[in-house]
Amino acid sequence: MSEPQTPRIVVCGEALIDLFVSSDAHGKIDTVAKLAGAPYNLAIGLARLGEKVALCAGLSTDLFGKALRHALISEGVSDAFLEEYTEPTMLVLVSRDAQGSPSYSFPVSVSAERQLTGRRFRDAQSPVDVLVLGSYLMVFPAPQKHLLGIVADKKSDTLICLDPNVRLGIVPDKKLWREAVEKFLPLADMVKASEEDIAALYPDVPVEAVAAAWLGKGARLVIVTAGGDGATAWFGTHETFTVKGKAVDVIDTVGAGDSFLAALLSSLREQQVLTKTSFDGLTADILAKAMRMANIAASITCSRLGADLPDRAMIAKHLEQK
């Protein structure tokens, strides 16, 4: 078991359970539970890269909540900002039809992750370099209010990273997503989003126009990922460049975006530009190096089943093969 360290990066958001359900011709039900949640995956990915990281999340006291907490601690993620609630863990039931197309249902209407207040993080005395937030807690009114409060409190001396992680399966109203993202944008120093996120938020608006608008709202760096086509960055005076993706036999894309962001942040930290004050030292060369590492990390995750994020040694091995 890894020894938790004083966190320098805090990821704020949900931890939940993906419950895969199937049945055979005789009606026998089979279930497989997976620990999940984009912020949860990101925190573990950062820990595997050797970063001092904590997850700020609401966990249930039920069996699933205990499993989520145990796995975090085992990976070396600090539990300093976890909050416990008696409400049950959020479940996402995943089933497939005869053609293999997935469908989702959400049997828990009041769940632990939505109770998050961030009180332990807000009251923390130790400085934190980076706060990462995103995904569906931004959309629900109560956690949204608390998250906005946390960001407002910490923005003056903490680098704020926004990763929208739009999940229309949980919150299908695109207007609510747009409104939520636009509340957080003026507070963000950097934004990482996928082409799918942007298509969901702003249908028929070119990616370039969205990136320019986000820079205009105050972001100093915008990165948009495009799967196997790599990722494009906009920063400074709207300077832009693309780093190509790495070809890979795709097994599963779950967790690829989280792998990308974990490796990106880790590389920027290693290059000493991942603080509020040092972020102005970001250059195209530094960013290109970080994006290459991020693309490699994402490709490794795509080559494996489930959100199995790579460690630093595995990424280094793949980088040497280029």
Can you put this structure into words, describing what you see?
There is one protein chain. This protein is of the alpha/beta class. The protein is 35% helix and 21% strand. It is built from ten helices and 14 strands. The chain has helices spanning 38-48, 63-75, 119-122, 141-154, 174-184, 195-201, 207-216, 256-270, 284-302, 312-320; strands spanning 9-12, 16-23, 29-36, 53-56, 58-60, 83-85, 91-96, 102-105, 130-133, 159-162, 190-194, 221-225, 231-235, 239-243. The strands form three sheets. An eight-stranded mixed beta sheet has the order 4-1-9-10-11-12-13-14, with helices on both faces. β2 (16-23) and β3 (29-36) form a beta hairpin. α8 (256-270) packs antiparallel against α9. The radius of gyration is 19 Å and the shape is globular. The two termini are 32 Å apart. The model has no long low-confidence stretch (mean pLDDT 89).
Helix and strand layout, with pairings?
Blueprint: E1 9-12, E2 16-23, E3 29-36, H1 38-48, E4 53-56, E5 58-60, H2 63-75, E6 83-85, E7 91-96, E8 102-105, H3 119-122, E9 130-133, H4 141-154, E10 159-162, H5 174-184, E11 190-194, H6 195-201, H7 207-216, E12 221-225, E13 231-235, E14 239-243, H8 256-270, H9 284-302, H10 312-320
Parallel strand pairs: 1-4, 1-9, 2-7, 5-6, 9-10, 10-11, 11-12
Antiparallel strand pairs: 2-3, 7-8, 12-13, 13-14
Give the uncertain stretches in residue-range form: none
Tally of DSSP β-strands = 14
Question: Distance N terminus to C terminus?
Answer: 32 Å
What Rg is obtained from the alpha carbons, in whole angstroms?
A: 19 Å
Order of adjacent strands in the largest pleated sheet: 4-1-9-10-11-12-13-14
DSSP strand (E) fraction? 15-25%
Q: What is the helical fraction, as a range of percent?
A: 25-40%
Major sheet size, sense and barrel closure: 8 strands, mixed
Mean pLDDT: 89
- Overall SS class: alpha/beta
Put simply, the count of helices is 10
Shape: globular
* SSE arrangement, N to C: EEEHEEHEEEHEHEHEHHEEEHHH
